[in-house]
Amino acid sequence: MQREDFSISLNQNETWHMDKLHFHESVELLLSLCDGGDFFIGQDMYPIQKNMLFLLDSAVLHRTVHERTDQPYRRYIMHILPTALERLSTAQTDFTRSFRCAKTCTVLDPQQMRELTELFRQLENVPGPERFGGDVRQNILLLELLLKLCDIWQAAETESGIVNPDYERVAPVLQYIQDHFTETFTLDDLARQFSISKYHLCHIFKNVTGFSVMEYVIQRRIILARELLRQPISVQEAGERAGFQTNSHFIRTFSAYTGMSPKRYARQYLQSAKLTNLTEKKS
């Protein structure tokens, strides 16, 4: 397992306010070490509380806000590539499947919290691969952490995500967008669908989620386009199937949100996939 396949860090900020929702190429784990704030994940909103473990798939939009001044926002963050989970999996121990079936939010009991925090700490501070045995120790700790996570998830119960009183009114809008984001519609269309003025819709949507309605729609389209480009299909077809009206708009928007053109993204992904398959065949 190469270090570039995963990362882990202990992060601390006095306040934390993501201006935009985003997503990653990797799977993200967040272990909260404090209370306060909200975590918007996909179409749900969760309170940020100590002893909470969050799991975010690589295709999930998310955004965190922590504005308490009485304590800093402390959390462990881990990212691991889906391809790394596949390589570590066996027929008997399928990490990919366990991650896919796991709860988005899990509340840990005190013993689970102590054990998981210690594993995060050890893995963050493991000696580098340049030291004798560093790579072996890193892989052992990573496997121990993954096994502990799977044990926790198997016994976990789903946590409720609704914490904001306005969320119940926004939730149907989020679901509607999820079902129709590849279609052409405007803010006026959405407002009529839910019998509300578009100004009030924009206000409550922004107040609850922290971002605009159309920003959410665009992000949903970008995520689908990214998945389509991996198949592979042409850039134009990926854009059309994701809901973009013109190829030029798709290329411009995709580049702005991901930092690279659709063509370059598809090329890099396919090259990475070929390299992974070659490595697996050699091993």
What topology does this entry show?
Elements: E1 6-13, E2 16-17, E3 27-32, E4 38-41, E5 44-47, E6 52-56, E7 62-66, E8 73-80, H1 82-88, H2 95-101, E9 105-107, H3 110-124, H4 134-154, H5 167-180, H6 187-193, H7 198-209, H8 213-229, H9 235-242, H10 247-258, H11 262-282
List the keywords.
alpha+beta; Arc Repressor Mutant, subunit A; four-stranded antiparallel β-sheet; 11 helices; 9 strands
In the CATH hierarchy, the architecture of the largest domain is Sandwich
**Uncertain regions: pLDDT < 50 for 5+ in a row?**
278-283
What is the third-level CATH name, the topology of the largest domain? Jelly Rolls
Strand order of the largest sheet: 1-8-3-6-9
| Main structural class | alpha+beta
CATH superfamily assignment of the largest domain?
Regulatory protein AraC
- Which percent bin holds the helix content? 40-55%
Q: What is the rounded Rg? A: 20 Å
Molecular shape: globular
Main sheet makeup:
5 strands, antiparallel
Number of helices: 11
Cα-to-Cα separation, first versus last residue: 12 Å
* H and E order: EEEEEEEEHHEHHHHHHHHH
Q: Specify the CATH class of the largest domain.
A: Mainly Beta
What is the number of independent domains?
A: 2
Oligomerization state: single chain
Strand tally: 9
Strand-residue proportion: 15-25%
Mean pLDDT: 86
Summarize, please.
The chain is an alpha+beta fold and 283 residues long. It has 11 helices and 9 strands. It has helices spanning 82-88, 95-101, 110-124, 134-154, 167-180, 187-193, 198-209, 213-229, 235-242, 247-258, 262-282, and strands spanning 6-13, 16-17, 27-32, 38-41, 44-47, 52-56, 62-66, 73-80, 105-107.
